[in-house]
């Protein structure tokens, strides 16, 4: 069998704080080979590896009010709890094992911070936040949320006690994830027991990558990928195999590229510089609403 070719296994770097509550590696969207275009429709990936936050009796750590337009943000909680509020009056808690899929569309202000009880007790935090591009025709869609609890994910048990797959978006063997997207994509958490493995297959034209959340895996019986590393596949071949060298969790991303111009400025991603200038004007004139 000819496996899907691996382009690179990339170690994490650029560890930094976003606000005072999220200690992250900037995985996607910041430099080659993982530019905003390379893994389209996934523009950016911030990964907060396991980090202990001590008890805090003051204001919960986090990120203050900030805007978005033209994208979706997908937050996956592996450890800890995150609370959020926005300029539409909506808010909620992303529980451990859950996902929040926010469509910023035409524009929204929101803030994200440690859930108050988690903040008071302290504990380990581990999160992923993805920016998913919106096609030009959907850039100005009405903002909305998809709040997905862990129990609502589609779960598939693998044969031979190999482990399981949690499907956030897309399909695996006729099982469909609960999240709706504006372009074709797949987002899975693959959980493998030590020494066990599975295979996955995606369209050759779809950009595909893996983030090793826990443990380490061997890909295509040849290439090892340790914890916190990102695996970038070439658009050559469809199927690849994963085998867990130790108990492992792997975030799998695959999607149809959005072959449109990208104009980005901070939290805004549009198609032209003119649209960016209009977005800044709209934000400055209060069209995104207000949030304390």
Give a structural overview:
The chain is mostly beta strands and 292 residues long. The chain is built from two helices and 26 strands. Strand 2 (15-18) and strand 3 form a beta hairpin. The protein is globular and about 60 Å long. The termini are far apart. The mean pLDDT is 96.
Itemize the secondary structure elements and their pairings.
Elements: E1 6-10, E2 15-18, E3 22-28, E4 42-53, E5 62-68, E6 71-79, E7 82-86, E8 91-94, E9 99-103, E10 108-114, H1 116-121, E11 123-133, E12 144-148, E13 154-157, E14 163-169, E15 171-172, E16 175-176, E17 185-192, E18 197-201, E19 207-214, E20 217-219, E21 223-225, E22 230-233, E23 239-244, E24 248-255, E25 263-265, E26 268-270, H2 273-284
Radius of gyration based on Cα positions: 19 Å
Contiguous helical run count? 2
Q: What characteristic shape results from the CA principal axes?
A: globular
Q: Sheet bearing the most strands, described? A: 7 strands, antiparallel
- Placed side by side, the strands forming the largest sheet appear as 1-22-19-24-17-14-13
Measured as a percent range, the helix fraction is under 10%
- Spell out the helices and strands N to C: EEEEEEEEEEHEEEEEEEEEEEEEEEEH
- Contiguous runs where pLDDT drops below 50 for at least 5 residues: none
Q: Could you tell me the strand content as a percent range?
A: over 45%
Task: List how many beta strands DSSP finds.
Answer: 26
* Structure classification: mainly beta
Overall mean confidence score, pLDDT: 96
Terminal CA distance: 57 Å
């Amino acid at each position: 069998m000819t496996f899907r070719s691996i382009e690179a296994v990339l170690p994490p770097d650029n560890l930094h704080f976003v606000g005072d509550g999220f200690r992250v590696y900037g995985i996607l969207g910041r430099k080659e080979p993982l530019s905003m275009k390379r893994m389209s429709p996934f523009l950016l990936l911030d990964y907060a590896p396991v980090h202990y936050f001590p008890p805090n009796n003051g204001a919960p750590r986090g990120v203050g009010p900030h805007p978005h337009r033209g994208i979706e943000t997908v937050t996956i909680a592996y450890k800890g709890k995150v609370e959020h509020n926005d300029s539409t009056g909506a808010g909620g808690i992303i529980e451990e094992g859950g996902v929040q899929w926010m469509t910023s569309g035409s524009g929204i202000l929101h803030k994200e911070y440690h859930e108050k009880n988690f903040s008071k007790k302290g504990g380990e935090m581990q999160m992923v936040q993805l920016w998913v591009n919106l096609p030009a025709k959907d850039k100005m869609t009405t903002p909305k949320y998809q709040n997905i609890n862990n129990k609502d994910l589609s779960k598939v048990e693998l044969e031979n006690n190999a482990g399981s797959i949690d499907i956030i978006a897309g399909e695996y063997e006729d099982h469909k994830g609960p999240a709706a997207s504006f372009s074709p994509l797949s987002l899975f958490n693959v959980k493998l027991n030590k020494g066990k493995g599975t295979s996955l297959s995606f369209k050759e034209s779809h950009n595909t990558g893996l983030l090793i959340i826990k443990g380490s895996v061997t890909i295509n019986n040849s290439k090892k990928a340790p914890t916190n590393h990102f695996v970038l596949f070439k658009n050559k071949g469809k199927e690849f195999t994963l085998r867990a060298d130790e108990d492992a969790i792997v975030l799998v991303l695959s999607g149809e590229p959005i072959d449109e111009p990208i104009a980005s400025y901070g939290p805004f991603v549009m198609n032209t510089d003119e649209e960016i200038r209009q977005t800044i004007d709209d934000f400055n004139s209060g069209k995104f609403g207000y949030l304390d």
